[in-house]
Amino acid sequence: MSSKKLAMYVCVAWMMAIIGSSFATTCPPDFGGRCVCGQANYNGKERYLVNCTNTHFNDAAMLEKLPIQTEVVIFTGNNVTSMPWNVFGKMNDYPYLEVIDMTNNNIQEIKGKTYHHVKNVKTLILNHNQLNITGDKTHPRIFSNFVNLESLHLTNAFSESVDSKEYLVALEQIFVGSNLTKLAKVHLEQNEIWSIKNPNIFCTLPSLMDIQLGDNNISDISFNVGCIHNLRFIDLRNNKIHSLSNNTLSKFEDLPNQGLGVKLDLMGNPFICDCQIADLLNWLRTTKVDVLEKESYTCYDGLPAANADELLYNVHQIQCAFAPKQEYQGTTVLLGILLFLMISLILIIGYMNFTSVRAGTVALWEKVVHRGQYTHILSKPEEQEVHV
Ligand SMILES: *[C@@H]1O[C@H](CO)[C@@H](O)[C@H](O)[C@H]1NC(C)=O
Ligand SMILES: *[C@@H]1O[C@H](CO)[C@@H](O)[C@H](O)[C@H]1NC(C)=O
Ligand SMILES: *[C@@H]1O[C@H](CO)[C@@H](O)[C@H](O)[C@H]1NC(C)=O
Ligand SMILES: *[C@@H]1O[C@H](CO)[C@@H](O)[C@H](O)[C@H]1NC(C)=O
Ligand SMILES: *[C@@H]1O[C@H](CO)[C@@H](O)[C@H](O)[C@H]1NC(C)=O
Ligand SMILES: *[C@@H]1O[C@H](CO)[C@@H](O)[C@H](O)[C@H]1NC(C)=O
């Protein structure tokens, strides 16, 4: 390459840069002058940003005209109940698009064909929406074009009128159907989750590291963790955990190195410091899992009552309200009840039949002793039964 040619290339590139920057703050006409497009600081980096914040759009049609060089699109504070097919248009690829933030748009439905041309997106934020992904609104391949997605934000994303158990099942179908092989972080805070009935919900995300479940109403770690081979962090802050059983805690032993290097955050849970918490106390002192700030966890209540507001680590005496609910005792109690019921049943049947049995025996005896007196034998039990 001659130096003349090189100079020309440099010159052209420089001119294009100038032209580019002179258009930088102007969005395409479809954006109605409500958004800001151009280089801006996003999370500490200069990025080409399209920023439509509190723009009160009632549809997302303008996003079809998104500038090709866009790296971050912020579309929040609008009212788009149903996301259309091909929200970023059918034509263009967006090779630089890395972040899509669609927080707070009153989104109720995302179609299976909404997100195309998103193959380089690493972060998708759908916080504070009214998503309904259950029933005929389940589109398992909804995120299937996000082949490089690393971080999925679904904080307070779901409609409160759909039971969390149902949408978590639908979410598992989405995880399976969308093949999110690179997804490392899932945010599910503030979703009124009480319990997770599908224990393998996170097992189909091979790169998963962080599970954010803070500010829910969860009382147990009911999902599998042993299947999450890259697990790094489980956030369960501010939930409704009273205590955790050996059964739950032993799951961490299935992790590589028994959970060494895994962080667990249980801050702000209402621990009940009665005898049920013995396993958790024991585990906290011995586990390899890094339980964040465990020295400052406090008892919300307890037995003896003096345990309330005490630090978990300072609790030395714990009592049981009733018999401790240990498993083998449960079985013993159950067996006892069954035995009692059986004996009672035998006694009742025995009593009900006693008269006729006795009559029968007597009759048999009489039959043996006084052969031939059949009328007497047959009439006697009937007479007696009438009087019972
Ligand atoms: C986007 O715009 C809103 C208001 O117009 C502003 O408050 C916010 O800081 C902008 N975001 C970024 C990342 O520049
Ligand atoms: C949002 O849009 C829906 C229809 O798409 C409409 O019924 C509702 O009133 C709108 N809400 C606001 C706050 O504008
Ligand atoms: C969610 O979608 C399902 C299926 O379309 C529907 O039956 C249910 O009523 C919806 N729930 C809400 C709260 O919109
Ligand atoms: C899932 O994605 C991986 C790599 O991203 C690919 O190799 C694999 O074939 C995909 N599986 C399915 C079922 O699409
Ligand atoms: C879940 O817990 C929060 C905080 O403790 C509480 O305000 C909320 O009412 C609970 N959710 C439901 C659905 O009861
Ligand atoms: C839980 O495990 C610990 C340590 O292995 C053991 O001492 C304790 O008895 C177990 N608790 C129950 C209820 O089985």
From TrEMBL:
> Which residue windows are transmembrane per the record?
333-354
Which SMART domains would you find in this protein's record? Answer: LRRCT
Q: Which InterPro entries match?
A: Cys-rich_flank_reg_C, Leu-rich_rpt, LRR_dom_sf, Wnt_signaling_inhibitor
* This protein's UniProt keywords: Leucine-rich repeat, Membrane, Repeat, Signal, Transmembrane, Transmembrane helix
Q: List each copy of the LRRCT domain by range.
A: 269-321
Q: Which GO terms describe its cellular component?
A: membrane
Q: Which SUPFAM superfamilies match?
A: L domain-like
Signal peptide range: 1-24
Q: Does the keyword Repeat apply?
A: yes
Q: Which domain of life is it from?
A: Eukaryota
Its protein name is LRRCT domain-containing protein
Taxonomic source organism = Daphnia sinensis
